[in-house]
């Protein structure tokens, strides 16, 4: 059971990036959650790093918008 919990929370940053990709927006809430995870972990996994690289590439290409809140 503990192993399952670890696997579910292991790639939280990737899950947050997937959320941003799904809605095609990077909200302050998602960005704050990503920053919080980075602060708590103190490091980043390869999976999470690749997810963040993808998010940045999608933003650079204009496919993901940085918005001030969920409503925009």
Question: What does the model show?
Answer:
The chain has 4 helices and 2 strands, in the order H-H-E-H-H-E. The chain has 72 residues and is mainly α. The protein has a two-stranded parallel ribbon with strand order 1-2. The chain is globular. The relative contact order is 0.20.
The fraction of residues assigned to DSSP E strands is 5-15%
Q: How confident overall, as mean pLDDT? A: 86
Distance between the termini: 39 Å
Following the backbone from N to C, one meets helices and strands in this order, namely HHEHHE
Structural class: mainly alpha
Helix content: 55-70%
Question: How large, in whole angstroms, is the Cα Rg?
Answer: 13 Å
Strand order of the largest sheet: 1-2
Number of beta strands:
2
Shape: globular
Oligomeric organization of the protein chains: single chain
Number of helices: 4
Q: How would you characterize the largest beta sheet?
A: 2 strands, parallel
Unreliable runs, pLDDT <50, ≥5 residues? 1-8
Short description:
It contains four helices and two strands. By secondary structure, the chain is mostly helical.
Tell me the layout of helices and strands:
Layout: H1 2-10, H2 12-23, E1 25-26, H3 28-41, H4 46-60, E2 65-66
Parallel strand pairs: 1-2
Keywords:
globular, two-stranded parallel ribbon, 72 residues, mainly alpha
């Amino acid at each position: 059971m503990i192993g399952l919990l670890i696997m579910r929370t292991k790639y939280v940053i990737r899950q947050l990036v997937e959320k941003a990709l799904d809605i095609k927006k990077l909200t302050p809430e998602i960005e704050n959650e990503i920053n919080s995870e980075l602060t708590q972990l103190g490091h980043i996994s390869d999976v999470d790093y690749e997810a963040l690289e993808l998010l940045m590439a999608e933003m650079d290409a204009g496919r993901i918008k940085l918005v001030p809140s969920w409503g925009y």
